[in-house]
Design goal:
Two copies of one chain form a homodimer. With 344 residues, chain A is an alpha/beta fold. Chain A contains twelve helices and twelve strands. In chain A, strands 2-1-3-4-5-11 form a six-stranded parallel β-sheet, with helices on both faces. A six-stranded mixed β-sheet of chain A has the order 7-6-8-9-10-12, with helices on both faces. In chain A, helix 1 crosses helix 2, helix 6 packs parallel to helix 7 and helix 10 runs parallel beside helix 11. The mean pLDDT of chain A is 94. Chain A binds a DNA duplex (16 and 16 nucleotides) through helix 2 and helix 4.
DNA sequence: TTGAAAGCGCTAACAC
DNA sequence: GTGTTAGCGCTTTCAA
């Protein structure tokens, strides 16, 4: 295997084309005045030499990197990588590359990310992570340097240029209406304690009940510790064992619903024949058997919006005021729900 | 919001610390001879000024970027992002950052990636993508420039420095033995036509049969077009409708197995009571109900190995010969399989 | 329309 | 131990 000795630079290209580096630069960079023929010569020389542009050098000179950093909590979770895809697809289109990093919710990794973020002179920050103190401080730093920050389904409790959130209230309102119309006015809810998003989801349910002038029975609300399948399993199992026989359960997270499915299986309760199940998130809901009727978040679209907002700011069309955008959630009916004629 | 006017450079730090840029550089870079006290002064000055090192400039000067590119087909698939995580975790430890890109199996995106790869002067390439012509050409280019290339569960049909593959034969051997010992000597297989990995998996089955001196009944081998859940569904459904009543099915891909579960549900066949199901990949197998007994690939570990190999080469401990590493697959017994006393 | 030359922020000889 | 200085490869005045 032969290895190219020396890096080909603009100078080499210019030499071969018989022009100056300035002209070569203008030809390759598509700017300034260059004679058509000259340009053609330069392009040919570059191709002949197998020249690869050095964007490091360009970056040093122009102080631009066309790079956006995206921080997410867990790279193996499709919920976040779908956001990442939305961001990248949009950013690439606009000539930006995006560096994806995850911090596994560990602040030492968050610190490492920001070190890299600043050292590599990234031009914008998008994050989908929950609150932590390092993030808060770093977002402040970032903004102070004039670099825009967008929270995309991330925490609301730090400084940012723009924020994208889910219209959780609207989504759960739809789900509630569906359950009600399907004959399950007394469905159970599994929500997470001390979770602000769970709280907002709950407001969606309350809103519906308010509108129809009924009261929600607090006995049907189950509060669990976190969004894990284990919590869903334990909560459901307890209900089943106590013989409460719910006809429908609404979970505020997909993993919770997966736990409920397992509990139902254990107790020989058939979904959807004996129990209707509704979930939120829609990450693998469609792949399960039965597939789960879900409130679906437009994560890919959210990523695109985030990229759009940040590039808009990077390119200077920045409005002073920060924006908060709430993206609508869809409600998708699948196999895990049925119609209940009895209405109990 | 106040915005920092000017970028703080090494010069500023040196000025404030009352030393030369060289000394400042030595202090911040931890190399060469620097007096302890001097170093302390420089560090303080840097902190005071909120100095952020400019790795673009460093890169230009040293011609090193400490960056590895990782190309995968689909960023929303946890199979690949677990590899990515393995790579990043290892690389970060060694002071490298990794740029993750996906090409959605579209060669124009592959081209874009390599443009970026060369322009940004990345020092190593890892890919998990299947064969395509652009990839082949670009890998050749990359190697010619002296940049190492590692295929991590990617195609074997291009030039590379090192290759990591799965011991598909061994994994399927284990699964076959399990099915046999569980009383299912006549299980059905769903494999994919024209897939080299499916072919190797099949060899694992044949190997077992050879050892016990029996012949595999070809009637039990189902060949489908691709690895989609749809193909799994259709193949299984047809078998069920024909009344063949298999007692066990072994799928060479998780999505195939998901399709089989759906078909079984449709036909009122209970898993595992009436049908045992074994799968390969282990991406969401543990989250399904019932959870699927699976051949599990050590993807995270594979990523770490890939990162290790490439960094070894980048740092010059390169052996001439290219290596091929086959990583063992585990076999995990879950709920989708039972024991068959009848043995038919 | 093209070229000469300065300089982006850093490192690494080399001199002191 | 520390400072001086010449570039790394590119863009961008400015002058021709």
């Amino acid at each position: 295997m032969k290895i190219d000795k020396k890096n080909i630079t603009l100078k080499d290209v210019a030499l071969r084309a018989g022009v100056s580096v300035a002209t070569a630069s203008r030809s390759l960079g598509n700017y300034g005045y260059v004679d058509k023929e000259t340009k053609k010569k330069v392009l040919k020389a570059a191709k002949d030499l197998n020249y690869h542009f050095n964007s490091i050098a360009k970056g040093l000179r122009t102080k631009r990197t066309h790079t956006i950093g995206f921080l997410l909590p867990d790279i193996t979770n499709p919920f976040y990588t779908r956001i990442a895809k939305g961001i990248q697809d949009y950013a690439y289109e606009k000539g930006y590359s995006v560096v994806i990093a995850y911090d596994d919710s560990m602040s030492n990794k968050t610190i490492k990310f920001f070190e890299m973020f600043f050292q590599d002179r990234m031009e914008g920050l998008i994050f989908s992570t929950p609150y932590n103190e390092v993030l808060e401080e770093m977002c402040r730093n970032t903004l102070k340097k004039g670099i825009p920050v967008v929270s995309c389904y991330g925490t609301k409790k730090v400084r940012f240029s723009d924020l994208i959130q889910s219209d959780a209230i609207g989504g759960c309102y739809k789900a509630t209406k569906f359950l009600f119309d399907s004959g399950f006015p007394n469905f159970f809810v599994i929500k997470v304690k001390d979770s602000s998003i769970s709280q907002r989801r709950f407001e969606g349910i309350e809103k519906f009940y308010e509108e129809i002038g009924k009261k929600l029975n607090k006995d049907f609300v189950l509060e669990v510790k976190d969004y894990s399948d284990r919590c869903g399993y334990e909560a459901a199992k307890e209900v089943f064992i106590l013989g409460k026989k719910p006809t429908a359960i609404f979970c505020f997270g997909e993993q919770l619903a997966i736990g409920v499915m397992r509990a139902a299986k254990d107790c020989n309760i058939s979904i959807p024949d004996e129990l209707s199940l509704v979930s939120v998130d829609d990450v693998i809901a469609s792949q399960l058997t039965p597939s789960i009727t879900s409130v679906s978040l437009p994560v890919y679209h959210a990523g695109q919006v985030a990229a759009n907002l940040i590039i808009e700011r990077i390119e200077g069309k920045k409005r002073i005021k920060s924006r908060e955008i709430y993206l609508e959630e869809r409600f998708i009916i699948r196999e895990s729900t049925s119609y209940n004629r009895l209405g109990n």
